[in-house]
TrEMBL record:
Residues 176-278, 290-389 form the PpiC domain. The PPIase activity resides only in the second parvulin domain. The N-terminal region and the C-terminal tail are necessary and sufficient for the chaperone activity of SurA. The PPIase activity is dispensable for SurA to function as a chaperone. The N-terminal region and the C-terminal tail are also required for porin recognition. Chaperone involved in the correct folding and assembly of outer membrane proteins. Recognizes specific patterns of aromatic residues and the orientation of their side chains, which are found more frequently in integral outer membrane proteins. May act in both early periplasmic and late outer membrane-associated steps of protein maturation. Transmembrane segments: none annotated. One of its GO terms (molecular function) is peptidyl-prolyl cis-trans isomerase activity. Its EC number is 5.2.1.8. Its main location: periplasm. Keywords: Chaperone, Isomerase, Periplasm, Repeat, Rotamase, Signal. It catalyses: [protein]-peptidylproline (omega=180) = [protein]-peptidylproline (omega=0). This is Chaperone SurA. Residues 333-353 are annotated as: Disordered.
């Protein structure tokens, strides 16, 4: 959930909803008429949204304004983020992804808890920081929609074979090493023309010259010149294991020292510079001993035919029957809507805390062995859970294989998701208006060496 908070705060810095329609005539006379900054399929981005987002970025860089690109370039970067948010939210809604008010409330409560505050204290802090609470809730709703769209994409598009896991395990020479990376991307469109390729090459070479000469550090160059969505974070990619680094860079990483920057490399998205920031030994990050839980559950799904209130009422009724002495397994066989466990009386077997998602796992951890939960809300619906046991297990090779499978999957997902976003952006109707015309990749040239 900490990751969710970071994403929400980043989205909140970029996105603000349109003014409420209930303004009085006097207020309308005092306020300038808002303009449309962009049309994105059937949605619009208002000029006020863009201005607030840009001003939030400027506030974050107070005292370091020299690290930012010119205003028109910054507006283009922020506009592209807003466009991608609109497109992903629209795609999620079109494909049936939904987020209820109760799920937003649960996310806010979790964010507040992670930060040692109550939901009301979090609300006050958000307001003090200059964001209206409805805007904050909307940012969370959109982030949850995008997360679920990405999860659905991963489930349908990403697979990792046992042969890939075997190959990765046999190729690991330093499995405990992790690399902190940052990158600068000069993007190229699909089917780039020779002229576009030449322009992008000149730009990436100019950026590399600036960094090599010491005229600009890597982070500032990323903010100013990178076309990557994480440009305004200095191109930071975080910590990666070797399995999470594209093969075009993995051999380079082994030969580099912290602080070094690669020569320009052509990849599927365009030309990149990669910086090795730090290296660490993370061999203790994945102990073989893990806690597993044995539980059984009953699921009442929430869908178009069963609203949230009805599903919760059913779950509460079933829990009351079990608490009154009814057999859990029999109730599960009769009423549970989880086909994978229904025939087993709801038995889920042994699992780790995160195996069924953080919401479900967190509730199981909070129970005592033999304890029956109150109804629990997750993305799937309402659950009644009985924790049956706890154990410490040495997962050994299974754990290592699972970790390698996960890292390969993350790397594949990153590549495929970025390609998916480019396709989505290319297929969308986007009309950018006013003083933020859409620029082709590579049109913000880097200064020549020495100037």
């Amino acid at each position: 959930m900490k990751k969710l908070l970071a994403c929400v705060l980043a989205a909140g810095a970029l996105y603000a909803s349109a003014p409420l329609l209930g303004a009085t005539a006097t207020a309308q006379e005092l306020q300038p008429i808002d303009r449309i900054a962009a049309v994105v399929d059937e949605s619009v981005i208002l000029r006020s949204e863009l201005d607030r987002a840009v001003n939030n970025i400027l506030a974050q860089y107070a005292g370091r304004e020299g690290q930012l690109p010119p205003r028109e370039v910054l507006e283009r970067q922020v506009m592209e983020r807003l466009i991608l948010v609109k497109l992903q939210v629209g795609r999620a809604q079109d494909t049936g992804v939904r987020v209820t008010d109760q799920e937003i409330d649960q996310a806010i409560a979790s964010i507040a808890q992670q930060n040692g505050a109550t939901p009301e204290q979090l609300r006050q802090q958000v307001t003090r920081d200059g964001t209206s609470y409805p805007e904050f809730r909307n940012s969370i709703r959109e982030e949850l929609l995008i997360q679920r769209l990405r999860q659905r994409f991963a489930q349908t598009r990403i697979s990792v074979s046992e042969a890939e896991v075997d190959a990765a395990l046999s190729a690991q020479q330093n499995s405990g090493t992790q690399y902190h990376l940052a990158h600068i991307l000069v993007s190229l469109p699909e089917g780039a023309t020779p002229e576009q390729i030449t322009t992008a090459q000149k730009k990436i070479q100019g950026v590399k010259s600036l960094i090599d000469s010491g005229e600009m550090d890597f982070s500032a160059a990323a903010v100013r010149y990178s076309d990557s969505p994480n440009a305004l974070e200095g191109g930071d990619l975080g910590w990666r294991s070797m399995n999470e680094i594209p093969s075009a860079f993995s051999e380079l990483m082994r030969a580099m020292s912290p602080g070094q920057v690669t020569a320009p490399v052509r990849g599927p998205s365009g030309f990149q510079l990669l910086k090795l920031v730090e290296v660490r030994d993370a061999s203790q990050a994945a102990p073989s001993m893990v806690t597993q839980y044995h539980a059984r559950h009953i699921l009442i799904r929430v869908d178009d035919t069963t609203p949230d209130t009805q599903a919760r009422a059913t779950a509460e009724t079933l829990r009351a029957r079990i608490a009154g002495g009814a057999n859990f397994a029999e109730i599960a066989r009769e009423s549970s809507q989880d086909p994978s466990s229904q025939g087993k009386g709801g038995d889920l077997g042994w699992f780790t805390q995160d195996q069924y998602g953080p919401d479900f796992g967190g509730q199981v951890v909070a129970l005592e062995d033999g304890q029956l939960s109150q109804p629990i809300r997750t993305q799937a619906g309402w659950h009644i859970v009985e924790r049956l046991g706890t154990r410490q297990t040495d997962v050994g090779d299974d754990n290592r294989r699972a970790q390698v499978r996960e890292t390969i999957g993350r790397r594949k997902l990153e590549d495929e998701w970025n390609r998916y976003l480019r396709e989505m952006r290319g297929e969308a109707y986007v009309d950018v208006r006013g003083k933020t015309p859409e620029a082709a990749p590579g049109t913000e040239p880097a200064p020549a060496t020495g100037g």
